[in-house]
Amino acid sequence: MRITVSALLVSTLVLSACGGLRDSRVNPFNWFGRGEPAPVTTTDSEVNPLIPTRSGIFSSNRGPSTFEGTPIDTVSALVIERVPGGAIIRVTGLAARQGAYDVRLTPANEDEEAVDGVLTYRLEGLRRAGTRQGAPATREVTVARKVTSLTLAGARTIRVEAERNALEARR
User: Fold this and answer.
1) How many CB atoms lie within 10 A of CB 139?
2) pTM beyond 0.85
3) CB–CB of 149/86 below 8 Å?
4) Looking at the chain, which runs of residues are DSSP E strands?
5) Which of 26, 101, 137, 142 has the fewest CB atoms lying closer than 10 Å?
6) pLDDT at position 121, please?
7) How many whole angstroms separate alpha carbon 109 and alpha carbon 94?
């Protein structure tokens, strides 16, 4: 074993260091050849090569997806904070059981527009199966959503609905 490894090491060093074998096919560093210029195919259309056109599991243009969340049990706090360009809606809720994750404020309508001056959101999240009820502190969830000034333009009231209650904030 020792002789085989030594012979392999010596032959590798001899073949790679030998100046006469530098351009031969015996040298393992030349097995794939040298890089050669290749012609570039161009198209006449206005296509940005930096934007991917394919779709797949890791692509970001998979199309619209729906959120499969269920309503959180109750809404305990609703705070609206003014920021440049809109507002941040911060909601604290209490889930019925431990293990709620991916909690979101989903708009009640697709366009996220105020209906009769009321902008409505649902407090929803995903749940793990087989979890305990636990203490209220372990079931508390907090989520925030930024809303632009254009969305707030027609709204006088912001309403957040849960499974058993709803909270509203008025201007």
Assistant:
1) 21
2) no
3) yes
4) 70-71, 74-83, 86-94, 101-107, 118-126, 140-148, 157-161, 166-170
5) 137
6) 92
7) 24
